[in-house]
Every structure is written in structure tokens, then in C-alpha cells.
Amino acid sequence: MSKEQRALQFMLDGNYEAAAKLFIELMEIEKEEPRHFMHFGKLLFQMKQYEEAERFFLKAISLDESQPEFFNSLGNLYYETKLYDDAIKMFQHTIKLGLDESDVHFMLGMSYVQNNNITLSLPYLQRSAELTNDAEKSFQYGLSLAKLKYYEEATQQFTNAIKLDDTHTDAIYNLAIIYVHKNELVLALQQLEKVLEQAPEHSLALQAKKEIEKLSR
Q1: How far is the first Cα of the chain from the last one, in angstroms, to the nearest whole number?
Q2: Dihedral of the CA atoms 64, 65, 71, 73 (nearest 10)?
Q3: Residue of 108, 107, 183, 178 whose CA lies nearest to 145
Q4: Which of 24, 86, 137, 204 lies at a C-alpha separation of 20 to 30 Å from 120?
Q5: Is the dihedral of CA 185, 186, 190, 191 positive or negative?
Q6: For residue 62, which of 37, 80, 84, 85 has the smallest C-alpha distance?
Q7: Residue 148 in 3-state DSSP?
């Protein structure tokens, strides 16, 4: 096992001190190898040392601007630190460089959501949901659709999220709310009961159930 592989294994195992020692040695030996700076940046990111992590990500990019993963890592850092405009630029560049993966599209879509630009989030959340069967990704895409009142499409996404994870109470609750908007109160109550079976203290579901029962009297 090479020194780099050992460092990565230490990082995976949570032995950050040992990983850092090896990465520093590698950076001193191979000063122009961007991969070492990127790995050390990821280690710092895991340790929540965000300013230092950014410095090493930027160093890696300065050595090789062709690697989409470098920009993706920097995008994740900017998202984590709530710099959503910067995150958007990094994820856009990641995709431009050819990294067409579900997680990248998801993070770009969520960056737009956090920036309160739901319309621009849609194509990226849609692409993310298309590339993988993942309950949370279907849910977030459905949530953006619902916010824009595309209720039929949102229903499909919430239903898919529940199919993938029948304990996803947020998806079940939001499906109930769509039924409320469509005045299908019986179906809404059925979904709310499912939420409360799993989460009896779900305040939003309790309140919605109470309001529907008032209307049904």
C-alpha cells in the first residue's frame, strides 16, 4: 500500500492526525501534485477547518484546472459555509468539465433552492432524480415542484420517495398537503395518519389533521 493509499485509509478510519502527517509529507515530496493538496483539503473539510480547506482546494485547482472533482469539492465547501452564489459557480463548472453525476446536479439544485430561486433549481433536481433512485432526491425535487404549484408532478415525486423509503415522513406529509390543495381531504387524512403513526409528535401533521377534521364536520 502506497503512502497516499495509507493516508486515505487513515482519513476513512477517522484517524485524522495520522492522515494529516502523511499528506503533509506527500505535499513536501511532490510539490506539484494537485491530488495531494485536494486530499488534504478534504481532510480539513471533514475537520470543519473551512478556511484552511479552501486554501488547499484552490492550490489544487491552480495546479490543474481540468479536474471537475476539484471544483466539486470547493462547491461543497461553499455550500456548507452558506456561500451559495459561489457554490453555484463551482457546481456549474464541475458539470461543464464533464462530471454528470446525480450528487453534483443535486447540490447545484439545492444551492438555487437556498438562494430562493426555485425555478432555476428544477432542471438540476430533475436530472439528479433521474440519475439515481434516491428518496431524498425525489423528495427535494417534488418539494420544488410543489412550491411552484406543479402538483401532479410533485405528487409523482413524493410517491416515488415514499416507495423508496416508506419512513420518509416529510414526503408523506407534503403529499397530504397536495391533497389538501386539490380538496381531496379523505386522501389527505390518510397520509397524515401515516405520518402520525411514525411520528406521533409531528406538529405540522397534527395541526393539518385538526384543520381538516374541522372542515369535515
Answers
A1: 71
A2: 0
A3: 178
A4: 204
A5: negative
A6: 37
A7: coil
Q: Which residue bears the cell 401533521?
A: 205
Does the pLDDT value for residue 32 go beyond 90? yes
Task: Give the C-alpha separation, 154 to 172, whole Å.
Answer: 12
Within 8 A by CB and 6+ apart from 82, the residues are: 114
Residue 28, burial from CB neighbour count under 10 angstroms (0-12, 13-18, 19+)? exposed
Whose CA is closest to 154, among 144, 162, 163?
Answer: 144
Query: What is the pTM assigned to this prediction?
Result: 0.93
Please give the grid coordinates belonging to residue 100. Answer: 454528470
pLDDT in tens, 150-183: 999 999 999 999 999 999 999 999 999 999 999 9
Q: Which three cell numbers stand for residue 151?
A: 402538483
Distance, CA of 71 to CA of 108 (rounded, Å): 12
Set out the domains of the chain in order of their start, with CATH numbers. Answer: 1-64 (1.25.40.10), 66-132 (1.25.40.10), 149-217 (1.25.40.10)
CA nearest 45: which of 22, 70, 28?
Answer: 70
